[in-house]
Recover the amino acids of this structure.
């Protein structure tokens, strides 16, 4: 497994993965302590509720989502952001086609093939 990305990462060179129906992602840049991931959602796509030990901060670059974090649910849209503490239950439903920019610390080793 690689332990870090190149210093410059060009979108055209990064493969797309399909982790769930209506969802595509690109792992853009990372090292052992940090990871940046772009995730594109089709309208109606579901980010199934899950948890992981990583801290996560996400920026909504496009679209509208119903976001669940713990026992709170809010509608978030372009320009909004959220934070997920380690081991916190979370998931989303895409209400309008969108793009999320996820950051994780430490990196998500399960995203690297």
């Amino acid at each position: 497994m690689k332990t870090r990305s190149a210093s410059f990462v060009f979108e055209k060179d990064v493969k797309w993965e399909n982790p769930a129906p209506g969802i595509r992602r690109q792992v853009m840049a990372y090292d052992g302590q940090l990871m940046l991931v772009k995730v594109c959602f089709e309208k109606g796509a579901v980010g199934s509720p899950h948890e992981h030990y990583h801290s996560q901060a996400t920026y909504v670059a496009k679209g509208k989502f119903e976001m669940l974090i713990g026992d709170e649910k809010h509608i978030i849209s372009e320009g909004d952001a959220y934070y997920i503490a380690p081991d916190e239950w979370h998931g989303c439903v895409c209400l309008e086609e969108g793009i999320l920019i996820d950051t994780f610390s430490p990196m998500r080793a399960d995203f690297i093939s």
